[in-house]
UniProtKB/TrEMBL annotation:
<keyword id="KW-0648">Protein biosynthesis</keyword>
<dbReference type="InterPro" id="IPR014729">
    <property type="entry name" value="Rossmann-like_a/b/a_fold"/>
</dbReference>
<keyword id="KW-0030">Aminoacyl-tRNA synthetase</keyword>
<keyword id="KW-0067">ATP-binding</keyword>
<protein>
    <recommendedName>
        <fullName>Arginine--tRNA ligase</fullName>
        <ecNumber>6.1.1.19</ecNumber>
    </recommendedName>
</protein>
<keyword id="KW-0436">Ligase</keyword>
<dbReference type="GO" id="GO:0016874">
    <property type="term" value="F:ligase activity"/>
</dbReference>
<dbReference type="InterPro" id="IPR008909">
    <property type="entry name" value="DALR_anticod-bd"/>
</dbReference>
<dbReference type="Pfam" id="PF05746">
    <property type="entry name" value="DALR_1"/>
</dbReference>
<feature type="domain" description="DALR anticodon binding">
    <location>
        <begin position="471"/>
        <end position="586"/>
    </location>
</feature>
<feature type="short sequence motif" description="'HIGH' region">
    <location>
        <begin position="127"/>
        <end position="137"/>
    </location>
</feature>
<dbReference type="Pfam" id="PF03485">
    <property type="entry name" value="Arg_tRNA_synt_N"/>
</dbReference>
<dbReference type="Pfam" id="PF00750">
    <property type="entry name" value="tRNA-synt_1d"/>
</dbReference>
<dbReference type="InterPro" id="IPR035684">
    <property type="entry name" value="ArgRS_core"/>
</dbReference>
<dbReference type="InterPro" id="IPR005148">
    <property type="entry name" value="Arg-tRNA-synth_N"/>
</dbReference>
<keyword id="KW-0547">Nucleotide-binding</keyword>
<dbReference type="InterPro" id="IPR009080">
    <property type="entry name" value="tRNAsynth_Ia_anticodon-bd"/>
</dbReference>
Length: 586
């Protein structure tokens, strides 16, 4: 069997049986087990239990200890303070558990899959057609991809939805212009990302100028919107050209971001067009939406604007048109009824949180969301410049995502060049991409998503501190030790006594799976980055204190190499879930 019970789960189970042996009514009580500096683990749950049973906590704790068999896993247990239990794990159990993880050849490090996984539809990386991607699009892509990696690892089924902005009145202007200036957009198959975006920009600017200066064109553009909405064939073909050209561009940026985006998961606003009238009809029939001044709207008691006037969600405008809310409501129906989602996850700027609050509440009233299907918006904060204001170029413009990524890679190249002077330019470029993009992702992921953070490249590519480069460097150093070991292979020796630093590293390694499950359940990638950073730190102090290749005995050399290798595998796995690479050499 490949899956391994973590030491903390084993201890928790043993405590649970000791608790219920002491007090049958305590069966199922949480022993509140956590890592501690006093011992390996501390259990604080007895305090609450004693309070409930009106018992003396120290006496109750002593009684629990008498029911706890020390042996293979728990080497020692003592009552401390007002009634805590301090537990020490046997060295043999630590190495044994890690050896079982090391032996797992499924690439899961012995981490079991969730017992009854659900289906999460995750809405992330949603740029807009004919528009350049900017720094604001970074977080949705990076956080969404990381959440997906973590959820997949737990066994959850995930389906991506890139709700791109590919519909709306601006297409009337663009299409009309293209109709009157054929050939301005080269066929999508003939351009690269950069050319695609520069074509789109040129067409956008020219059509906008015409729209603003020429009333007759403006009128033709308006008519074109109607033609688009009524499904006119020629109009739709031109619209498709804009979408295709934009996708060429999107793909080039996502490739730079080292992120896989699947075509079938790009399902933009336009895909929900057909379903919108039905969404409106259902909401009106159920009485969830009401007519107000000709529009179809939904009111909420607790959502009010200026002068305490209720702010409604507009499902259909008075002129019959549908907007952003109708497309999101229709998407919910599709994701719940069609894709059979149990969870809908949105990774969208926190500034859209009111929109989602209203959309979710409407869907709940309609019964599309309920106790079995829930929705969350991981509203993320803003990327700030060094001045603490939203990140802008020196000229005060929004920063193009590509420019920002290019600069990160350039900065990383300086670090790589500094570290290894014997590399070819190609090698430098490849490593710099992994380091630079990793640094941008890691900086984004290591703050809680809801918080703003400062975009500081110097800090991001620093070799010291909580950065991806530090982790990548730890990984590469381990690879170099493993290469130096030559013929000597890593091997676990559970009979060996462990050094304090080995125990600390080992216990942390064993907690990888529990950490991923917790971080995934809470949609908190920063908990995984914090774990990985601590892993690298514990490895560093192990390496400082415990000679590896010059250890006392051949068995100890093998065992330490094994700890090194398992650390490296855990680092790559964890970073990989977050979308960050670990180069073999740095
Ligand atoms: N394209 C939108 C924007 O750039 C984000 C879409 C978010 N997803 C959604 N289902 N509304 O603002």
């Amino acid at each position: 069997m490949a899956s391994v019970t973590s030491l903390s789960d084993s201890v928790r189970q043993q405590l649970a049986s000791a608790l219920s042996a002491t007090r049958p009514e305590a069966a199922g009580a949480d022993p509140l087990l956590r890592r501690s500096d006093r011992a390996d683990f501390q259990a604080n749950g007895i305090l609450a239990l004693a309070k409930k049973a009106k018992a003396n906590p120290r006496e109750l704790a002593t009684e629990v200890v008498s029911h706890l068999a020390t042996g293979e896993v728990i080497k020692d247990v003592e009552v401390s303070g007002p009634g805590f239990l301090n537990l020490t794990i046997a060295d043999r159990a630590i190495t044994g558990n890690l050896a079982a993880r090391y032996a797992d050849d499924t690439g899961r490090l012995g981490v079991p899959l969730a017992g009854n996984p659900g289906t999460t539809v995750i809405d992330y990386a949603q740029p807009n057609v004919a528009k350049e991607m900017h720094v604001g699009h970074l977080r949705s892509a990076v956080i969404g991809d990381a959440l997906r990696g973590m959820l997949d690892f737990t066994g959850e089924k995930t389906i991506g939805r890139h709700h791109i902005g590919d519909w709306g009145t601006q297409f009337g202007m663009l299409i009309q212009y293209l109709l009157e200036h054929p050939g301005e957009l080269a066929p999508a198959s003939e351009v690269d990302g950069e050319q695609a975006m520069s074509n789109l920009n040129r067409v956008y600017k020219a059509s906008r100028a015409l729209f603003d200066s020429d009333d007759a064109f403006k009128e033709r553009a308006r008519k074109r919107v109607v033609a688009l909405q009524s499904g006119d064939k020629e109009t739709l073909e031109l619209w498709q050209q804009f979408v295709d050209e934009s996708k060429v561009y999107f793909y080039s940026v996502f490739e730079k971001l080292d992120m896989e985006i699947r075509d079938e998961e790009i399902v933009g606003e336009s895909a929900y067009n057909e379903g919108m009238p039905e969404t409106a009809r259902l909401l009106e029939e159920m009485g969830v939406a009401v007519r107000s001044e000709g529009a179809l709207v939904v009111f909420f008691d607790d959502i009010r604007g200026k002068d305490d006037q209720p702010v409604p969600l507009i499902v259909q405008k008075a002129d019959g048109g549908f907007g952003y809310a109708a497309s999101d409501l229709t998407a919910i129906r599709d994701r719940v009824l069609g894709l059979r989602a149990t969870t809908l996850l949105y990774v969208v700027d926190v500034r859209q949180s009111l929109h989602f609050k209203m959309v979710f509440e409407t869907a709940r009233r309609a019964g599309w969301l309920n106790d079995d299907v829930t929705a969350h918006n991981m509203g993320y904060g803003t990327v700030l410049g060094a001045d603490g204001k939203p990140f802008k170029t020196r000229e005060g413009e929004t920063v193009r995502l590509e420019d920002l990524l290019d600069e990160a890679v350039q900065r990383a190249a300086e670090v790589v060049r500094e570290k290894a002077r014997d590399l070819t330019e190609d090698e430098i470029r490849e490593r710099a991409a992994q380091v630079g993009i990793g640094a941008v992702k890691y900086a984004d992921l290591s703050t809680s998503p809801s918080r703003d953070y400062k975009f500081d490249l110097d800090q991001m590519v620093s070799l010291n501190g909580d950065t991806s480069v530090y982790l990548q460097y730890a990984y590469a150093r381990i690879q170099s030790i493993l290469r130096k070991a030559g013929e000597v292979r890593p091997a676990a020796h559970p009979e060996l006594e462990l050094h304090e630093a080995e125990r600390a590293l080992g216990l942390h390694l064993d907690a990888f799976g529990d950490t991923v499950f917790e971080a995934a359940a809470e949609y908190a990638p920063h908990k995984l980055t914090a774990y990985l950073y601590q892993l690298a730190s514990l490895y560093t102090s192990f390496y400082d204190k415990c000679p590896v290749l010059k250890a006392d005995s051949p068995a100890q050399v093998e065992n330490r190499l094994f700890l090194c290798d398992l650390t490296a595998r855990t680092l790559t796995k964890g970073m990989g879930l977050l979308g960050i690479r670990t180069p073999e050499r740095l």
